[in-house]
Amino acid sequence: MPTAQANGVQLAYETSGDPAGTPVLLVMGLGLQLISWPQEFVEGLVAQGCYVIRYDNRDSGLSTKFDHAGVPNLPVSYVKSLVGWPLRPAYTLSDMADDARGLLEVLGVRGAHVIGISMGGMISQIFAARFPEQTLSLTSIMSTSGRKGLPGPTRAARLAVMRPPPSPRSREQLIAHMAETFRVIGSPAFPMPEEVLRERIERSIDRSLCPAGVARQLVAIAASGDRSPLLRQITRPALVIHGAQDPLLPVACGIDTARRIAGAVLHVIDGMGHDLPPQLIPRLLALINPHVQGKMAPQTATA
C-alpha cells in the first residue's frame, strides 16, 4: 500500500483507473477506511472514465495515528458540545481537509471532483470552500452542515455509535458488535446481505483497528461546529445525496446542506439509511456520473 507525506501526516492511499481520466477524490467517513468504499462503486467510477483516489483519513486505516493525544472522554465531550463549552480536539476537520489537499499535491493532481460520505462529506465541504482551485465539483453524501437546531441521531443510532466495542481479542464479539451498529444505522429498504456485511467487517478488522482514533474523530466533528458560513463560500457545482430514512444524520441535515450551497442539486433517496448497500450502488453512480461530467441530473425529492 503506497503512502504519502501530506500536511505533516502519513496517508495510506490507493488509485484506480487511468491517471489521464477524470480525477475523483473519495473521502471516507468516521472510523472507516479506504477499503470501506464498495469495490463495485470504485469500479463503476473507473468504468465511467474516472481516475479514482482513495485514502485513509488520519487516525484510521494505515495512516498516521494520534495515540499521543490520548483517548477523549466521549460522554463528557458530548455534553460539552450540547451546552456550547469549548472542546480540545487532537485535530480539526479543517486539518483533515488540509490532508486531502496535501495528498493531491503529492500525486500531482491539480484538481479533483471531491466525493465525501458522512464525516467525509463534512471534510469535503470544507475542502470545496477553502480550496476552490483544487475543487472541480463537490458531492456530499449523507452529511450535514452542522448547523445548530438540526435534528440529531435517533436514540438507537446514537447509542450504537457511542457504545464502546468489546475487546479486540474476541473477534466474533467484535464482528457482532460492528454488524449490529451497521444494522441500526443502515438502509431499511435495502438491508445489507449478511455475507456482504460480514466480509466488509472482517476485511476492516484484519487491516486496521483503532477505536481511539474513532473517538478522536468524533470529537473533531463535534468541535467543527456550524459550517453554514463556509457552505455559502462554495462556488463549484455541488451535488447533495441523502437517505430519507437516515437515523444518524436525518434527512433534514442533507436538505439544509443543499440549501446553503448556491446552486446545489439535492437528491433524497427513499428507503436509504446511513450506509452504502450494494443495491444502491448503480443508483449512486447514475447520479454522480452526470455531475462529474458537467451534466447535472435534475433535482428530485426521491431517486
UniProtKB/TrEMBL annotation:
One of its GO terms (biological process) is glycerolipid catabolic process. InterPro entries: AB_hydrolase, AB_hydrolase_1, AB_hydrolase_fold. SUPFAM superfamilies: alpha/beta-Hydrolases (SSF53474). Gene3D superfamilies: alpha/beta hydrolase (3.40.50.1820). Residues 23-275 form the AB hydrolase-1 domain. This is Proline iminopeptidase. It comes from the Bacteria. It holds the Pfam family Abhydrolase_1. It comes from Pseudoduganella namucuonensis. GO terms for molecular function: triacylglycerol lipase activity. PANTHER family: AB HYDROLASE-1 DOMAIN-CONTAINING PROTEIN, HYDROLASE, ALPHA/BETA FOLD FAMILY PROTEIN.
